Every structure is written in structure tokens, then in C-alpha cells.
Amino acid sequence: MFKIAIDGPAGAGKSTISKILAKRLNFEYIDTGAMYRAITLKALRLGVDLEKEESYEFLKDTYLDIENGRVILDHEDVSEAIRSIEVTNQVSTPSKIKTVRDFLVEYQRKISNSKNVVMDGRDIGTVVLPNADLKIYLDATVECRAYRRMIERAEKGVVQSLEETINEIIVRDTKDSTRAISPLRVADDAVIIDSSNMSIEEVVNEIIYLVSERGFKIMNNEKIYEGQNVKGRILNVTKDAVYLELNGGEKAVIYPNDLAGYVEGQKLRDNYNEGQEFEAQVKQIAKDRKTGEPLYILSTKLEAEKAKLKIFEELKEKDEIISVKVSRVSRIGADVTYHDLKAFLPIKNVDLNEEALRKLVGQTLDVVVTYVNTDKMQVTVSSILAMKKKQRLAKEEALSKVNVGDIVEGTVIDVKPYGAIVAFNGLTGLLHVSEMSHKMVKDANELYKVNDTVKAKIIKMEGDKIGLSVRALTPHPWEVLKDKYHVGDVFDGVVSKIIDAGLIIKLTEDYSGLMPRSEYSWLVNDKLDGKFNEGDSIKVQVLTIDDKKKRVSLSHRATVENTWGSIKLKKGDVVKVTVATIEERGAKVNYLNVTGFMPISEVTSTKRIGKVDEMYPIGTEVEALVLDVDPSRAKLLVSAKALELAKERAEFDKYYKEQEAETPTSTMADLFKDLDLFGKKEDK
């Protein structure tokens, strides 16, 4: 029996196409979806829990049949009832129940074993009829499927918006594709037909072509098919053939080379006579030249020849590449031979047009076996799949020879903004923009063009997807910087930019360092403003190198001595200073390794002077009191006068203390006199 399995999502047109196709082929149409809808309808009517396996005990008492396209449930025609929105929204739930699926799959397979069928659903090619002669996955866009469904319902008086129907389709697709049992998926050997932009007639014709391609000859809607066992009676025996009439009245013929046991030169009349009953297999369906009626060419050797075809089944199972010879070419493809065994190469299975294929007659082609039907003596091969397998094997071999970390050299074959495609050693890899340079690259076209030679490192391999990196072959600019500079290094830096925060000093081509304003001088009054221009040189020291943030901090003041750093004075301290220079307002004095100032008003208290050297010539060591000190501002103010006054005060204090010690204590009468305890004044 010839079995056609049509799968696809909701609204793809499976039922419509299948019905027309079955009628054209004179096949039995089996709407499996309608069967599930019927079970759903009964479950809803009974009010059972659709999610529970035990709810479907009713199946053992359920009568289900399809008669002339009508669905009969418990002797009731429910063809319209099963198309309700309620059933549509719920049908996927029973479809995932094992009890329901087992019940219906058994019924569906039983039908397909007894007649030629067109069966549609969502798992026909993958579960119900995995050995179907032809598997079709009928698809269309969500919008297209929703529109068809909306129109179909409108014709039945059910009004629904396109948006509502689209949402319904999406929900249904999700349920069908994610269910645990027999989810909707494309069978490995299915032919995918997108009907979005095709008419119903175009889709039907395409499938009929595929049916013909697989060995089923469509002729006047006859039910006799190639490979079928038929019985008849011999009408006439000639030297060249035996002519028969089959039990159905059909005309048939069998030639000597199709007779088992026939020996070259043997007379057919010696073994076959008119009126003799005869049984054979249909080898080919042709036309009678005189009447145009079907003429069935028979054979009694087919079983033996079928046995030979087992080799093709093994080759298909192994997916082995074989060489075949092209013997004949037609519009639909080429007849080829493999060790004297015939096969067919459809024109769609070879990357050549008819004219180019004809030039290969007598030559060999590499192919793989895609379809084997020993009953019908039909073998289909594909040159395209063989070529793809060669490419796949070559790629696998090439992949086995490379590893993450390998350095390869290749050629740019394509450039996109996000990266460059590089071909190397029979493979391709992606050089992403992020791996082209340590610097940011916005568009790969900035760096590469087609035919450029690229040396890169393999950094990632996921299956046949390879990630490449050029930047991995060059040290990171930060590492270059770290090799060149270390904390404490002193060098003459070049000012590349002046910002509010300080000076930007160029370190390498890729990195710069910051010298903050606070790191210019030890003295707060020594300002950076206006002292440098871009391109100027300045001596700096590396203070810090931050690996995590990739920042370098620099200092200029660290390169010069902080003369005030050792000064530990406070106001009121007595110091010895040396007069260094004389000025109109006073004198600069040296204390240790810093310079302070003594105002002329603070030189002496004993006399008026016009200049400091009138009292203290240059080089004189003077003892003085610290009036003010601020090392951060390089400020030291001293006074000899203040020290003189302090000494005098100390002498006075000493004298008064000595006097107090020598003076007797006052009498009680003195105290009374001074205090006037009684509040009376003395009369005078």
C-alpha cells in the first residue's frame, strides 16, 4: 500500500490539501485530527478531567469511524461539532494522553495497511506512519494560517477577528510543539512545503509530482499499483510475450526476460498456454498503444530482484556515498545504475539542470540513497546530499585537526559590521570586532576587506562554529605599559592634555597617566595654572599602577626635595636663625635648610632702626621666637624682639616673686580697714 503522511501546524491547510489529493489519487483520506477532535468532543460532553489518564476509560465503549469524509462518533455525525472553538482550544490536551494516542494510532495504522491512504495530522510522519512512502510537512506563516482559519470559520457563520485567530494559532502551536508525547516536529525525511504563497492547486500538483517521483504511477485513477500481486488468465502466447487478462478485466503482458526460469532461446509456448491461470507482480504501468488503456507489465522475477535491492537499504542505513552511472535523462531526472541495479536521481536532487545532466550520460556521479521501496522496486538517490556529506566529512576531518589555542592563517571571505568571516584549512571562523584589536572597533570594515590575509588564534570551538582572535596574538597595551613602567620610576613625561584635575601625561600609544594638581608641588601656594602647555616636558614619578582599573597615577613633587618636610616647629618655640639677606621690610633668615622671615618691626625693642643690619649684620646668628609656622605654605615668621620682651617679662616675674617672698603678711586691722566690713565711711 502507498502511504502519504501530511503533517504541519494548525491552519496550514492539511485537511483541504489532503482531501483533494486523496480524490485525485483515488486514495482513502484519513483525517487523524478529526479523530482527536471527536474524542475531545466526547470527553467535553461527559465533563471529565481532560488532563487525567483515567478519564478516558470511555474509549473502550467508543465507536469511531470515518465514512466518505464524515466523522461518525457513537453512530452520530459530528463533522461540524468537532470544529467548534471549544474543541479547537482543548484538543491538544487529549492529544498528549497516552491512552488516547495508543487507541487512535492503532486504528490509523490498521487502515493504512489495507489501502492506499492520505493521512494528515501532527505526528503522522514521525509516529503513526514512520515508514510512509511520502512524508510532507505543510507549513505557512502564522498570519497566513490565521487568515485561512478566520475565513473558513466565517463561511460557517463563526465570526472571529484576525488578531484573535492569530493568538489562538500561537497558543495552539506552543501546545503542539511542547507536549511531552509526540510533539509536533518535522520528520527527518519529510519534504517541507511552505504554502504561504501557493494556491491549493499548486500545492496538490507539487505533492502529486513527488508521488510520481517515488514510483506510484497515476493513470486513470486505477487502483493497481507497481509491486502489487495480481492474478489473471493467459489470452495469447507469442514468441515475444505472454498476453493476459487480469481478474478485473485489465490488460497485461509479461516478456521473456521477466519470467523466472526463462532460458535464452526457449519457446514460450512450451511452458505457457492460452486459458492458463497466471499470477505475477506488476512491474510497470504503461499505456496500450492502440487503445490508450492501461497496460500492466508483469514479472515473476521481481521477488528475486527485490532481494537485490536490500543492498540499497543497507547503503541508506549507513548513509554511504556510492558511485552510480547515468544511463538515461528525462525532464524529471535521470536513471542511474549501481552494479546493474537501477535507481532514480530526481532533477531536484542534483545541482545541475537537465541540459547539463544529459552531458553526463555514461559517466558516474557520487550519490547517497534517500528512498528505498522494495515492493515497488523504487530507489531514489541524491547527488546534492552526497556533495553535502562530502563537505561535512571534509569539515569534520578539518575540525579534528584544529584545537582551541591554535594559530591559523586564512583569507577574509566576507565582512559584516559585527565581524569578518575568515576561511582557513577548509573551515571558516568568525573574527568578531571585539577580537580584532585591543582598541574598540565599531565596524569591522574599518580594519578588513575581502581577500585580506589574517593571522589569528582560535579562542572558541562549539561544534563547527569557530571563534578567532587577532588581539590574542598581541600583548595587551596595559601589559606593555606594565613592562615599561614600575612604581617609583622617574622620567620626563610629555603633557598630552591639560584638564581641571591636572596633567595627562602620555605613557604609551594606548595609555596615559594623570598627574593630579596636588602632586605638582609640596607647597600649596605653588599653583600649576599657566605653567605648562600641551607638548611640554615635565619630570614625574610613578606613584601607583592600578591593575584592576588600569590607571596610572603620577607625581611631579615627588621628584623634588621637600625641604619643609623635616620642619617640626610650633608657635612659641625658640630657634636660632642666621641672617641671610637684608630687605627693606626685614631680613630673610635661614633655619636648618629652609628660609624664614624676620620683619624689621620684630628685630629689637631697645631702639629704632632703619635696617636689620644696624642690629644684626648678614651672617649673624640670632636667637628668636617663632611667631607663625606653616610648612605646607613654606612659611616661617620669627621675632628677636618678641624673645627679648619675653626674657624681660620673665626677669620681672622672677623679681616680683622674690619681693613677695620677702614682704610680711598683712595684719587683721589692715584687712578690716581695707574691707570696711561695717559699711561706714571714715570722717575726715
What is the total number of structural domains?
5
CATH superfamily membership of the largest domain: P-loop containing nucleotide triphosphate hydrolases
The first-level CATH class of the largest domain is given as Alpha Beta
Helicity level, as a percent range? 25-40%
| CATH architecture tag of the largest domain | 3-Layer(aba) Sandwich
How would you sum up the major sheet? 5 strands, parallel
Total helices: the number is 16
**Overall geometric form:** elongated
- CATH topology of the largest domain: the name is Rossmann fold
Strand order of the largest sheet: 2-6-1-7-8
Structure description:
The chain is built from 16 helices and 33 strands. It folds into five domains: 3-213, Rossmann fold; 229-305, Nucleic acid-binding proteins (OB fold (Dihydrolipoamide Acetyltransferase, E2P)), CATH 2.40.50.140; 309-390, Beta Barrel (OB fold (Dihydrolipoamide Acetyltransferase, E2P)), CATH 2.40.50; 402-473, OB fold (Dihydrolipoamide Acetyltransferase, E2P); 477-559, Nucleic acid-binding proteins (OB fold (Dihydrolipoamide Acetyltransferase, E2P), Beta Barrel), CATH 2.40.50. The N and C termini lie far apart (161 Å). The protein is 26% helix and 31% strand. It is an alpha+beta fold. Helix 1 crosses helix 9, helix 2 (32-46) runs antiparallel to helix 5 and helix 7 crosses helix 8. The protein has a five-stranded parallel sheet, with helices on both faces. The protein has a five-stranded mixed β-barrel with strand order 9-10-11-13-12.
